[in-house]
Fold Probable protein kinase UbiB.
Amino acid sequence: MRISRFYQIQKTLLQFGLDELIPQQWQPWYARLARRCLFWLRNRHPDQPVGVRLRLALQSLGPVWIKFGQMLSTRRDLFPPQLADELAKLQDKVPPFDGVLAQQLIEQALELDSITQLFDSFDTVPLASASIAQVHSARLRMTDDNVADVVIKVIRPDIRQQILADLALMDTLADAAARFLPDGKRLRPREVVQEYRKTILDELDLQREAANAIQLRRNFDGSDSLYIPFVYSDYSRANVMVMERIYGIPVSDIAALHAQGTDMELLAKRGVEVFFTQVFRDSFFHADMHPGNIFVSRDTPANPKYIGIDCGIVGTLNAEDKRYLAENFVAFFNRDYKKVAQLHVDSGWVPAHTKVEEFESAIRTVCEPIFQKPLAEISFGHVLLNLFNTARRFEMQVQPQLVLLQKTLLYIEGLGRQLYPQLDLWKTAKPFLENWVKQQVGLPAVWRQIKDNLPFWAEKLPQMPNLLHQYLEQGPKQQRQLLQLLTQLQQQQARARVQIVSATFAAASLISASIVFFQGSMALAVLLFAGSIGFAIKALN
Ligand SMILES: Nc1ncnc2c1ncn2[C@@H]1O[C@H](COP(=O)(O)OP(=O)(O)OP(=O)(O)O)[C@@H](O)[C@H]1O
């Protein structure tokens, strides 16, 4: 299986002429020989640019490769824009698998004799079908005899094995790319495949997706801006997930949004607000915000609310990441590049030996053109992208969660401007950044820390008298034990010194005894020999 798949991949790469990416002189003799032997596999698309050929090759290799190409399209730090744009066109249109098989998988996972045990109805025709999972609609019977409209997401059968097999082959190709591509070092293909492996394997686990959805729903409980469908966690397993069915308008259906009189300006602003709230308030953000996963509620068009699905990929941030973002954004939008550079050095994000002036000038070179536009039109995502690219050149290891955030930010900005082209991103985002920076300093910060630590102290307080008593009682006793230990150690060290000296004398006396013996002085030899025995006994004690 693996060999035939490997041949199929090689065949595709050769027929799309992707071997030409490696210059002849870089190819080892055995690779050139192998290429000649496969003479019947010619480049069938010589007139197409390389980006198109790469897209077509990935498209024909199937879903795992299509998703890989989609991921590469977001790595604008690695590839030229034409190539990234071409890869962004990849669409994973896969035929659905048999709905009756989906039903059997659900019955197996939920240990049901029949699906009717739990569901009033189940539609074997899928509602949607993607590369990893398929979605079916159903009606769930509730304990109070009500029924709820739900959707059931089912992971494709055998997809795990296919993914693992293709990932192994991708590893092999990544090794070859790292060795033979002229740009192999900079592109870091092994790391890129490694990152993809993590993302795609995470997507196979619907328990993880269910947990993310539950957390996000809790974070936005009662919000006017975002709704996350309820997950029936009792009926969710690694390959099956049951959740509330939503009937929103896809966010890309601008005509339908206008038709129902949606307040587009408010909707666009809320998109940015929801994102910054997730980042700066919750440190937990939906990181797969493509338009297919965002809907708008039909209920209150004047007070529009988003509905988010597919929480398979989320990003989390720690306090350090948030500080990085907030401080850099504020410094950037004040066009204070020196401060940006200094922040990177002071915080240890770039090595201490970095020359601040050089770094500052590099940031200015890539960012100043962005600021030629009015502030309202500037893309935060591009600012971050440029900053990361520059910082990488200055040896900064950009954390994956920040890259995920930068990609999400680009999506959100694109979406916001599509909904309401006059959207002023800076005005919408500024209060979040300033509020966060304010919270980090001064009295509010101290008060928050006290508040955060309060549960710990409240838990420990009743034990305090006991602990104090124990300390007072144990303290002197422990100190005495420690002193004893120290004395013992010192004594051992002294003994070791005596042993070394005695052993040296024993050896010296023995050597002298033998010399004297051979010179004929028997009595002195016996004396020295006896001495050496004496020293040896002392050394052994
Ligand atoms: N709760 C829901 N209510 C109604 N429709 C839903 C719901 N969840 C998913 N769908 C439909 O199923 C489609 C696929 O769902 P989802 O995005 O979760 O699957 P996926 O396999 O992760 O797809 P992709 O990877 O392409 O985003 C959605 O675009 C939507 O049309």
